[in-house]
Prior knowledge:
Order of helices and strands: HEEHEHEHEEEEEEHEHEEHEEE
Mean pLDDT: 93
Function: Converts adenosine-3',5'-bisphosphate (PAP) to AMP.
Binding site for Mg(2+) 1: 73, 93, 95-96, 218
Oligomer: single chain
EC number: 3.1.3.7
Strand content: 25-35%
GO molecular function: 3'(2'),5'-bisphosphate nucleotidase activity; magnesium ion binding
Enzyme class: hydrolase
CATH architecture of the largest domain: 2-Layer Sandwich
Structural class: alpha+beta
Amino acid sequence: MAAINVSAIMPDLLQIAKKAGDAIMEVYNQPASFTQITLKSDQSPLTQADQAANDVIAAGLAALTPDIPVLSEEGKMVPYEVRQTWPLYWCVDPLDGTKEFISRNGEFTVNIALVAGTTPVAGVIYAPVTNELYYTNGQDGAYKKQGDQEVEKLAVTGKTEKLVAVKSRSHGAPEEIAFLSQFAVTDEVRIGSSLKFCLIAEGKAQLYFRHGPTMEWDTAAGHAILAQAGGKLTNPDGEPFTYNKPSLLNGSFLCSGWQ
């Protein structure tokens, strides 16, 4: 992180995320019949909003940090032979929760993370429908700001006697139920996108286990925020969860509201 002062650029970074959210909302607020939905090569949906948000973020980051490369879900894929040499890069999901966007439940986010080597060190998650910003500069904690309200410092609850598990709105697997059975889970919350990480970071849940596949840009910003709030994201066996892998596909992982 020596090459960049994240604290100094955080206000600009938050504005980039909000402008991307504005671009998404321009599409979201159109009549549903006007929203063009296509399919990517892996058959996941791509809307006008994904590309509009990506254009805003790509331009904003290029102006803010021209020497730091960007790896984005909607951008050009970069071969591992190239990106393995990157000491720092932005890992971006312009619209996380496209299925939530299409179903119009509001549970989608803009994700921007700064990755140093193989570890996310700073990040921003913006939920445009609720105007909620979650962020960390990687140095002095994680924070939430909703609308014009005061900034709130985030903190996990720690390992409590009664645990709340957060689960995906659109995905699920029997393996997740089996894995979580080893914990004293007494309640569950279902929510879309990277907001699952945020719920743990702000102490509203303590566990999130994901068995099904995700991509690095789905988890990087949430990983950074959760870590700075006092929680952690690891492989199911407790080993470190790393980024900038030869394959950008993530394996299973566990988020917890304690170290």
